[in-house]
Amino acid sequence: MRPLALLTFLLAPTILACDLNVRAVPADAPTSLEWDRYIGAVSYRVTESTDDFVTTRSYEVPATTFAIPHRVSETTKFSYRVEADFDPEQVIDGACSGAVSLTMKPDPQFRRMTRKSVVPIVGSVGNFRTWLRITSNAPAQRGRLVFHPAGVASDADPSMRYEFAGIRQSFTWDDIVKTLGSSGIGSLDIIPDDDSEATPPAVLARHYTDAATGTFGSFEPAVLPFDFLAPSPFTVDAPDPRFRLNLGFRTFTAATVSALIFDAAGHVKTLKTVSYPADYFTLYPASQLVGTLAPGETFTLSFTGSIIPFYTLTENGTNDPAVVIPRTSASRFIE
């Protein structure tokens, strides 16, 4: 080796890598990560993935611990990579990182909240009915249909079992609430058995009113609770005078609804806030929360907690109902 090349080799910094010794805590039911402190690190970058880092999410962490910010309804594998970050003005030889894979077990409360589908509003009141059809879309589907009347849900609420003999089999009821031995307005849960196929059957509901000339109504699909773990705000316009506007809420956790009311020029008139307990259903005239709206006025609803918000528009002459459920992006059974 030439003298100059030898001198360059001897003076070059030695690139040292270290292992942060990332570990899951506790090992049998992880809720957090820990790793060794690396002298000189100002923070740590935690990269998370559920598909072997095909898609990732990153967090900046100032300490050597990281609380896993998720609960799951099914056994789920997570992979984590932790890398030490340094002050860019400091010269640090080498890099320091570590990795760990872990399996999170289902959280019983979260599983109970999300392992189902929900028809946010069903009813049997006067001439108002809810028609329901459920269709199997996977083998060995069985479980319960549970009607939760307005108010706090209970394990003793009216229910009945369903069990399919094969795929694409359907069950249909013209008045599902009456079939369940109840009446009034509420919501309907379709809950698979714990030891059966986790996927709920396909569900289609139709709300209709009997009239002398036939029935008037509209269709409503069931929704998945994990789409409403943190629902996005949405805006509602003052209804046409021909229609009645009602607001409905089906909660999974304790939740707060805030209504910001705007006049026709877009100026804020007032803010109203109301809170509801977990497992609660309510439906009432919009004026009860936001007052009487003049033409051109609007209100925006925002939420804390997990809640399905919806509203209904009912034609005054025919009592023809329509249910509007603003949608959010899915969360894949992971909170």
Strand and helix layout:
Blueprint: H1 3-11, E1 17-19, E2 23-25, E3 32-34, E4 41-49, E5 57-61, E6 65-67, E7 76-86, E8 95-104, H2 108-114, E9 117-124, E10 128-135, E11 142-149, E12 151-152, E13 159-163, E14 170-173, H3 176-179, E15 184-192, E16 202-211, E17 214-221, E18 234-237, E19 243-251, E20 255-262, E21 268-276, E22 280-285, H4 287-290, E23 298-304, E24 307-315, E25 321-324
Parallel strand pairs: 1-8
Antiparallel strand pairs: 2-3, 3-6, 4-5, 4-7, 7-8, 9-15, 10-14, 10-16, 11-13, 11-15, 12-22, 16-17, 18-23, 19-22, 19-24, 20-21, 20-23, 24-25
Structure description:
The structure is a single chain. The protein folds into 2 domains: 15-106, Immunoglobulins (Immunoglobulin-like); 110-324, no CATH class. Helices cover 7% and strands 49% of the residues. The longest helix is centred in the first third of the chain and has 9 residues, at 3-11. By secondary structure, the protein is mostly beta strands. The protein has helices at 3-11, 108-114, 176-179, 287-290; strands spanning 17-19, 23-25, 32-34, 41-49, 57-61, 65-67, 76-86, 95-104, 117-124, 128-135, 142-149, 151-152, 159-163, 170-173, 184-192, 202-211, 214-221, 234-237, 243-251, 255-262, 268-276, 280-285, 298-304, 307-315, 321-324. A hairpin with a 2-residue loop joins strand 16 (202-211) and strand 17 (214-221).
